[in-house]
Write a sequence for this structure.
């Protein structure tokens, strides 16, 4: 048994070392390429596919949301379209669509190791997350293993599959994210300026007057320290949503829906229970706080 554990640990260490080496190599290659690249007068260059139907709307929507994303979310810059970007992104969408077909039945997702994130809180969009796939995503993008599946709750209590979420380490550079999915097509996001509430103030994570968390009014380390909280510049890591069943690029890579999901839980008012209920608000909050 000890021998097996040692083998697993050794394999894990090797994976981490390989990942670190690949990151250093990619960063060095990126810096070398930038140093060797001649400067150009971009004003004289023709933007490829600038008039393609749907692309102008996608760029406009992404750029607009980039400007008003708020203090608790950071998004990657939208880059100019490069040769091969459309094809690479389209291939990822096709692979994702194929992968997701079997997960239209949410029971298949559960059987494959996906678990509902905060299942007892009403949300616009629910994340069914596979933490093993999330671990794999620290090293590479695998369209066959999305970190999370995105579902909406239907009126009859069922689940409607709408998309997937891929993740990357918080330390990943924009160049590394671009290697996974072209940043001319998709914008990754990460959650920032998180202040964890001190004991006894957990109720202030939720509601329209929230002070702590991803919808809180506290957005700096100084404010967090004064409130007795614990400040985290970034939580989780980089994320990107893809909705492969949609028709246009703007809908497939919709930034608006990425923005919406960050507030889907944190802006919720805790439900009031009827007199005599044995499920007070503290139980509701504990479900939310369990992942912090």
């Amino acid at each position: 048994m000890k021998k097996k554990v040692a083998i697993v640990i050794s394999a894990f260490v090797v994976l981490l070392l390989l990942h670190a080496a690949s990151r250093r190599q990619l960063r060095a290659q990126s810096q070398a390429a930038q140093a060797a690249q001649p400067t150009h007068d971009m004003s004289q260059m023709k933007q490829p596919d600038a008039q393609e139907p749907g692309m102008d709307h996608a760029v406009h929507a992404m750029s607009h949301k980039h400007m008003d994303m708020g203090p608790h979310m950071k998004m990657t810059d939208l880059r100019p379209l490069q040769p091969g970007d459309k094809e690479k992104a389209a291939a990822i969408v096709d692979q994702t669509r194929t992968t997701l077909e079997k997960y239209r039945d949410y029971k298949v997702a559960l059987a494959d190791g996906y678990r509902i994130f905060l299942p007892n809180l009403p949300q616009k969009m629910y994340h069914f997350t596979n933490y093993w796939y999330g671990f794999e995503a620290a090293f590479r993008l695998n369209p066959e293993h999305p970190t999370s599946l995105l579902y909406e709750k239907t009126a009859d209590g069922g689940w409607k599959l709408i998309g997937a979420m891929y993740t990357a380490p918080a330390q990943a550079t924009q160049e590394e994210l671009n290697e996974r999915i072209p940043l001319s097509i998709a914008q990754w996001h990460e959650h920032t300026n998180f202040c964890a509430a001190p004991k006894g103030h957990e109720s202030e994570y939720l509601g329209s007057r929230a002070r702590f968390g991803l919808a809180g009014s506290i957005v700096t380390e100084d404010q967090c320290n004064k409130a007795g909280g614990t400040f985290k510049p970034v939580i989780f890591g980089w994320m990107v949503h893809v909705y492969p069943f949609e028709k246009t690029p703007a809908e497939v890579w919709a930034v608006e829906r990425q923005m919406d999901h960050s507030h889907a839980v944190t802006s919720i008012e805790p439900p009031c229970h009827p007199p005599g209920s044995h499920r007070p608000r503290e139980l509701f909050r504990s479900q939310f706080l369990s992942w912090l």
